[in-house]
Amino acid sequence: MVKRLKDTQNYWGALVLDWFTHLQDNELSGSDYKVLFFLCEKMQASDNSIYLRQKQIAQELSMDKGNVSKCIKMLSEKQFIVKKPNGFMINPNLFYVGKRSRELREMIRLEFYKLLIAQEKTPRFYLHEDEHILEVTDLERQQLDETEGMF
After folding, report:
1. CA 57 – CA 69 distance, rounded (Å)
2. CA 132 to each of CA 13, 16, 18, 93, 126: distance values in angstroms, whole numbers, following the listed order
3. Which of 23, 58, 126, 140 could bond to 136 as cystine, CB 3.0-4.6 Å?
4. Per-residue pLDDT reduced to its tens digit, 58-88
5. How many CB atoms lie within 10 A of CB 57?
6. pLDDT at 141 over 50
7. Could you tell me the sign of the dihedral formed by the alpha carbons of 100, 6, 91, 130, in that order?
8. 76 CB burial (10 A radius; 0-12, 13-18, 19+)
9. Is residue 97 a contact partner of residue 12, using CB atoms and an 8 Å limit?
10. d(CA 68, CA 72)
11. pLDDT per residue over 76-130, tens digit each?
């Protein structure tokens, strides 16, 4: 039997192309990417949230729970994800799923910023939809400029 697309619960996803620069970060390990892409696959289309415990992630990825915890910490530090009650949220400045209005995309980004600020973090990424630009904080921009100047 052929499975039709309408029978699945797949959604389309959009990556902000400027994100690829940040995905090439030398501090990220293969395990970090594995966890990140797993979370992207599992996130809810409505709000970029994932409601899984680290133990569940470890089981599904056949990884040690301690390693998953380290990956979550790294991805949180890089602000690719943010912890929220009972789960995580993928940074909506970088990745989103489904057909959303601009107003809803902005509300989801605002929720992400609020979660970061509650954790005493300064948001690192800002997506300017009108200009099609992914902005980074001044500190981040300075580090990128220094790195580019080395080559």
Report:
1. 10
2. 17, 9, 9, 11, 11
3. 140
4. 999 999 999 999 999 999 999 999 999 999 9
5. 22
6. no
7. negative
8. middle
9. yes
10. 6
11. 999 999 999 999 999 998 887 766 788 888 899 999 999 999 999 999 989 888 8
Q: What is the pTM of this model?
A: 0.78
Q: Which residues contact 119 (CB under 8 A, 6 or more apart)?
A: 82, 83
Question: What pLDDT score was predicted for residue 49?
Answer: 94
The continuous run of DSSP H or E covering 146 comes out as helix 138-149
Q: Are 35 and 57 in contact (CB under 8 A)?
A: yes
Nearest to 78 by CA among 132, 142, 134, 26: 26
Task: With residue 145 as reference, give the H or E element that holds it.
Answer: helix 138-149
